[in-house]
Structure formats: structure tokens, C-alpha cells
Amino acid sequence: FGIMAGKVKWVTDIEKSVLINNFEKRGWIQVAENEDWNFYWMSVQTIRNVFSVETGYRLSDDQIVNHFPNHYELTRKDLMVKNIKRYRKELEKEGSPLAEKDENGKYLYLDFVPVTFMLPADYNLFVEEFRKNPSSTWIMKPCGKAQGKGIFLINKLSQIKKWSRDSKTSSFVSQSSKEAYVISLYINNPLLIGGKKFDLRLYVLVSTYRPLRCYMYKLGFCRFCTVKYTPSTSELDNMFVHLTNVAIQKHGDDYNHIHGGKWTVSNLRLYLESTRGKEVTTKLFDEIHWIIVQSLKAVAPVMNNDKHCFECYGYDIIIDDRLKPWLIEVNASPSLTSSTANDRILKYNLINDTLNIAVPNGEIPDCKWNKSPPKEVLGNYEVLYDEEMAQSDGPDRSRPGQSTGAKGNRARDLGKPVLTTWK
């Protein structure tokens, strides 16, 4: 057997120190991807190949990877919206109180993604909606790109007609996914702090989809724009005003290289408690947690719940000036690049805590293991939702939107209809 027997053998195709330092700290052994490995932290490109029909790759019981095979059901902008729309319809059919609507036919609780259409497919539906509210601004994003690439804002139909002609291949004819865009109602009343727009990046770890078990990382952060926000249409094409992606903001003249335009979520919480009050702040965070769980429940039925997989998602949430949270998108490979020293520490700890849950005791994986680790190993994660606990727990004792006081109940409560506090 020799000395090598008990050591996890790892591979990664993402050359990031926050990953490699974590593997080395555990005394794990680096191997090449064509050798026997136990743990592969891979890019989304690689996961495609591993699970593709052609390679027909079979993972053995002592191998785990950091993505679900079809994670894109949640992490592609168009598919996420499609799955959430399907989920709403299903809840409606079941007569679930969650699918309740107001007198204008708007969902009371499930209205947490901005109105979105796929282009080119839904072009006519989009035009119809645009004409109902011609003063609105829309944001257009390519389905398959990240870091703010290819995004632009429009407030006139002529701009989108121009776009459809500009893509020389006349992309309204081509249905190929390459030119697929989503167009969403732009949240033009974002909550501003110091006059600037920001969004929240929250990390959510899913260890299994059926039953759903997910964890929220406590140390999320806010990403600020470097330029003060204005809804003025003259600034529609100034992305420093509208997009919080660090990949974009770091090129701005006012980008701060010390804090990188970031605030911790706990800073945000304190700030909101002192400016808006404790009660509405608690309600906001309960709602954020609730919509994350709902988005996971929406994709769980279609997710290939492979026992070799776990995933750490980067959730992007925008809060509007009424303190309503909106789910903007979910990232499959949240950036592990560090823009600041604090950032590096945060991401190192994020990976450390993720590995402690995904690879219990740092031992060679065994896919038959029970995937609910003891509280002691969660680090900065807390259980967000645990379907097994929720089901075994009997009658409904409380609902999200009402903080249960005892933190422990929260894991069971999310996902129950919220009827009292969310009017």
C-alpha cells in the first residue's frame, strides 16, 4: 500500500493560487488529468468534455468534480429564466399559495427575476411588452458570456432593430445558440449607496439537488460601480455607471485598488439597519435567502443530480430602492482571481470551507457517503435549506420572512409559503 494510500490525488485546470494552496495545505497530491485522480476542480469547458456523450466518461466512486453536468440549467441566463417560469406554472397548477398573484396578474412572491425575453425567439413578445411601457430601459446580454462582455442597454426599439441588422448574419433568422441573447427589464431604481449602484455576490454551495441541500457562505460582498449612478439616458452606454463587474470596473479611472470597490455583506447589513431600520433589513435578507432556495428548487427537477458532483455558485443579486431583491444571474465559475488582499483571503477561505464540506475530513472521496456534514466543519457556510430536514420535520412552525430567532430552524423553514409577513 505504501505511504500514498490515503492521500487525495487532485487535478485542476484553473491555475489559481487560492485553489492550489488549499490542496497543498491538505497534503494532497497533484497528478495529471490522464492519471488516476480523486478530485478535479475544473473549468466549465472541461466539465462539458467529461460528461459529453462522445467521451462517455464514467467517474468511479472515489472521484468527485466541482460542477454538475448540466449546471447551465441554472447558470445560463436564458435557461435560468426558462426554468423559473416553468416552476411558477407548476406551482400554479398545484394551487400552491406561493404562486398567488395580485389583481394585475403579477406574482406576489415569485416575481424575483426581471421581466426577460429570449432573442431572437421571443422578439414579438418583447416588442409587445416594450410598447406597454415605452419609457423603460432594457438590458441586453449574450446568453453564454460572462464578466459583462457584450452587454448593452437600450431604450428605443430602433436600437434593437439596428442590432439585429448589425449582426451581419441577421441573427434573427439564425436560431443557433451562438447569437442567443436575453433582454431584461433594466432595474432603473437600484438602491444607491454614496450615489453609486452596487450588486451582491453571494456564494451558494449545493451538495445535492435531490434531496436539495444547499449552504450559504456568510462572507458575500457588494461590488460597487466607480461612477455615480444616473438613470439619464445620455449615460446609457457608460458601463462604469451600470455594470458592477470587477472585470469592467477595474479599468475605470476611479477604481480603488485597496478595497476594489467592495464591501462585505455584513457592512451592508449594518448600513441598512442604521439607515432603513432593523426590521426591513432582516426582511430583505430573508427574501434574498428565500429567492436563492426557490431558484434551486426551480432547476432541481431537471438537474442531472450526479453523486460525483457538488457546486459552488456565485449568485448576483440587485436590491432596488424599495429594498426588493432581484435575482440577476447565477455563475458556475465565480471568479477566483483576487483583486485585493482581502479578496484573496476571502476566496482562500471560501475554497477551504467548500472543500471541508465536499470532501469530508479530506479523505479519499466515497460517493456513497452521507452528504450532510456536522455543524463543526461548516466554517463560514450555514445550511440554507435541507429538504430532508424540512420533510422529516412535520408541521410548519414558521415561515421565511419571519426570523425564527433560533438560527437552526432556518434550514428547515425556507421554501415554505410566506403569507403573513410579505404582503
TrEMBL record:
Spell out the residue ranges making up region: Disordered.
389-423
Q: Does the keyword Cytoplasm apply?
A: yes
* Molecular function, one GO term: tubulin binding
Question: Coiled coil located at which positions?
Answer: none
* Family designation: Belongs to the tubulin polyglutamylase family.
Its assembly, as annotated, is: Part of the neuronal tubulin polyglutamylase complex which contains TPGS1, TPGS2, TTLL1, LRRC49 and NICN1. Interacts with PCM1, CSTPP1 and LRRC49.
What this protein is called in its record is Polyglutamylase complex subunit TTLL1
* UniProt organism field: Neodrepanis coruscans (wattled asity)
Q: Which gene encodes it?
A: Ttll1
